[in-house]
């Protein structure tokens, strides 16, 4: 018979349990260090436990849409606002309708109220409009008639002389310094707005060829309309916040087919923008990205669907053939010009970017509202109040008392039934508690996780799930001892059987939590999230702490010898003593004579 291989371990054996214990202890220290480094040592609490801020939004009537305020649009707005403020669904914000045109938004304490107000109040109507003319953002002084006429003659003479010498129109206005006369802009727009004109300035043959393929550029307004727009532009002062807000609101409420006057975000430039060339509904996703190579800092990258990508490529191709500033397109968000880049060639690929001095937070916020879509209605924040947590505090105290009573009963049961093994169970529960607490604190900072009453219930239920895993393993070890094995082989042979049972049980619990998280909304998601998190941590604790600790304790005489207080006493487990001594000394045969 071949000799067994040297160093072979029994199934489920663990050769270096000390290293595994050191690994989980290092992880605990790292999580605790990250928690203190984040500056937060307590979990974020939901609005029912910590209070917060409540906003009341009132839907506004839309120009040209008398029936826009209806249950369908209100429910759509609730869904979009809920996705904005809840992010991953665990920040515990509450969004619900009230009446026919009001939405109530409750934000937990600890959330930036100003940022939350921007998230819920931003309509996020995105549009791409061509720039027709641009000038400095300050109000243009009105010239006297004689001075204006002399200036026009002088400008015309200078322009004619320059055109004769150069043979091409002069791009006399930039997006950041001065504007071109409206008449020049109008002439250029009319010249470029000829049906069938392509972006590449080809001959008449090419124009006819492309007439069916490329859409016609947006026609320029009439001369009278341009004069009225120029008058509005001259009167507009973008240097003050009030005037910018008024101009942005007017631009946001304008029809997509109408040109508008708008201010750039920083107020340094005011512009006349043409009709909407590409609507924001063509944007499928948006992401905040740091541009280290181009030196633009934080930008927002957009991706279009197939229809939006084609329109964007066509429009940028048309703008590329125009002089400045008409080769620019303005990215307009709720009537405000966020960015107005110039175009040198057609931009294909279905991607674009928005830049303009963003911080990481502002870029992330903009990408967030663009990703979740525009609201079908415009809203005003009519009230903003502070919500107290008096009722939630009482419920939390009652819940914590109930949890403490349940934990005490579990401890009493473990000590009475498992004796020394109860120390292993309690140490495992302590490790699970430390991991759960630190991860919840870190998730509050990372994804806005907030602990509410249902989430507390999920954590209390997890105590029973974790204790159940210990009991399964302890009973497998006892079964091996009852079969006559010593402790060390019992610990190793009982582990594979207990491991399968623990994994199946935790898989069922995690699956139930995942389904509950997906199909429910509101506070129930907090319960499901906490239950799923603690179930995963139960697997980590049992594999990386409970099993290695039992392997080490099996080598100690107190447990290995089956001390009565170890919980592994063979006599208490019903193990019968071996009969080997009686087999070695059989009884003497009875003498027939004596019988």
What labels describe this entry?
alpha+beta; 6-stranded antiparallel beta sheet; 13 strands; 51% helix; disordered N terminus
Task: Please characterize this protein's 3D structure.
With 595 residues, the chain is α+β, with helices and mostly antiparallel strands. Helix content is 51%, strand content 15%. It has helices at residues 17-37, 47-50, 71-86, 113-121, 145-166, 182-192, 204-210, 223-235, 241-253, 306-320, 360-371, 390-418, 421-446, 453-482, 487-519, 523-553, 557-560, 580-584; strands at residues 52-60, 94-98, 102-108, 126-136, 260-263, 269-273, 278-279, 283-291, 297-304, 329-333, 336-339, 351-358, 378-387. Strands 4, 5, 6, 7, 10 and 11 form a six-stranded antiparallel sheet that branches. Strand 2 (94-98) and strand 3 (102-108) form a beta hairpin. Helix 1 (17-37) packs antiparallel against helix 16 and helix 14 (453-482) runs parallel beside helix 16 (523-553). The protein starts with 16 loop residues before the first helix and ends in an 11-residue tail after the last helix. 37% of the residues are buried. Residues 1-13, 144-217 and 579-583 have low confidence and may be disordered.
